[in-house]
Please model this.
Amino acid sequence: MANRVHARARRWTMSVTMLAAGLVLGAAAYPRVGSIETMIQSRWSDWRSVAVTVTVPAAGHGAAQAARFVAADRPAPLVVDLHQWGETYAGSLGNDVRLDRLVAARGWNYIRPNLAGPNNTPAACCSEGVTDAVKAAVDYAIAHGRVDRRAIYVVGISGGAYTALCTLHSGKVPVRRYIAWVPIADLESWYDHHAFDHYGQDIRQCTASSGKGLDVAAARRRSPLYMPLPAQIPAVHLYHGIRDGMVTSVSPDQSVTWFNRVALATGHDTDIVSDATRLSILDRRVGPDQATGRSVAGRRIHFDRRAGTVQLTLFEGDHEGFMVPTMDELARDYRTLGAAPSSLPDRVLDAAEKGTDRLRRALDAL
Model:
């Protein structure tokens, strides 16, 4: 009996390995490395189940909330997926592949909390209740999943990236790394661009502003750009489409201004984005690194700079966020902790990632 079980296990493992190898080899026909990575990740993630809905109890100033949750079957990282500006826990991040599927495919823990719902009430928009709700969601995942507490990651796009930065400033959650795509950092300046559309109305409702004007002091209290910095700043990677804000909703200057503020506050004055570069980014929509040939998700990188633990990457794109490179970055970070891949799916995806890395180097050498 035991021999038959082992034989079946070996056949299943061989099938999975052959699938991964086929994906890597078949990917060679794809025209861009970003497409290769997306194909490999999405094909594998289609095999995996996704999150179930749970109820996270009230904690601190945060109300009880629904959340979508996946529990790992062995110690593994936790990925916290923060919903976009006008959305709820019911969706999932990703302009390429859904984040919940990618996390589940690696056998990791995942949670997407509702927080205070869409950002259009005083209870939302980075209130103390919202940051308490993020902490409550993390505590729930730790209690009901199998979380390697060294590797708690927070990911957000747009309004979710805004909430991620607010969570960082609150210092309430022991996050190892934040990845924020097209974040909002300053509600006051964002309102200047949206005073007459629904985003402007949302900001007025969040800040309980009277009439058609904005309560600037209230907007600043809810803006990461003006919040006190924590004593220790964890790793943060800001990604922003360099064409965002032209037709879509959030200018890359939102990321640039927050990056500069943190760089100055942490003694990295020489790493700030200069006024001349900012003007080029906003006026011509190009950056000084555009000729390097580097890319993310198949998009040319225009600007890439690090100031201490914070990195800013501006790419050819607009208001969007890509979860395949997000998961690759988190997996690489987790390996730096000396952790072995947490599951067979994790090992398969790591092997696939190494295959695409080799292909990328070969293409760069052409």
Q: What stands out?
A: Residues 24 and 352 are 6 Å apart (CA to CA). The mean pLDDT is 86.
